[in-house]
């Protein structure tokens, strides 16, 4: 059972079951818990190889036991997402925890240059259960429909779910449009039907290499 204590701490109540969580994100626990480091953050060798290629530094641990375990990471805001057999795509730096029964892996998202440290692959979480994702400031959930496609600054993108097509547009950016310069050389466009999570603060991104 996932529940928030405030907006920046995740409490997970366990009765012999397990969760996957970002390595080092446990801040306290009661009862009896066992911790095991998982390789690559994905399922099997593919998850390990793709992350090594893209240089992502995400490591995941499995926590199993009886009691309550609390997770947090750098005072980030935490957002709970319920999955009903669907798939959630999330930047690896924004992943905090997921039910152990959910399948985690990586998905190729196209040639887009790189958000710093995130490369060409996105973490995927799929199945039935709960996941917790982080954002720098309270996340906003935006609806995408056939009539209203959505364009997102790559530094503000956190995650998305639903029947969405993702593409990358180069050219004029939000920053260069207003003469500030040094901004992203591309934008992320979503079309279809689904939800996109964005944060009110931008991670550092690398301009130009689309």
TrEMBL record:
Superkingdom assignment: Bacteria
**Positions of transmembrane segments:** none
**SUPFAM superfamilies attached to this UniProt entry:** TRAP-like (SSF51219)
Question: What's the protein name?
Answer: AIM24 family protein
Gene3D superfamilies for the chain: Mitochondrial biogenesis AIM24
Q: Which Pfam families match?
A: AIM24
């Amino acid at each position: 059972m996932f529940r928030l204590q405030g907006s920046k701490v995740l409490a997970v109540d366990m009765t012999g079951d397990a969760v996957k969580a970002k390595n080092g994100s446990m801040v306290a626990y009661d009862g009896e818990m066992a911790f095991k480091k998982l390789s690559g953050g994905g399922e099997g060798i593919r998850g390990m190889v793709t992350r090594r290629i893209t240089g992502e530094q995400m490591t995941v641990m499995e926590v199993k036991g009886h009691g309550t375990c609390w997770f947090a990471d750098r005072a980030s805001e935490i957002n709970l997402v319920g999955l009903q057999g669907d798939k959630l795509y999330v930047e690896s730096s924004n992943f905090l925890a997921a039910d152990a029964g959910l399948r985690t892996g990586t998905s190729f998202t196209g040639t887009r240059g790189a958000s710093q440290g995130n490369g060409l692959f996105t973490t995927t979480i799929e199945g039935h259960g709960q996941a917790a994702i982080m954002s720098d400031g309270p996340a906003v959930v935006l609806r995408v429909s056939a009539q209203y496609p959505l364009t997102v600054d790559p530094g503000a993108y956190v995650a998305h779910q639903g029947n969405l097509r993702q593409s990358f547009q180069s050219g004029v950016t939000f920053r260069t449009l207003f003469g500030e310069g040094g901004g992203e050389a591309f934008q992320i466009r979503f079309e279809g039907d689904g939800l996109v999570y964005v944060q009110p603060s931008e991670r550092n991104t690398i301009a130009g290499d689309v």
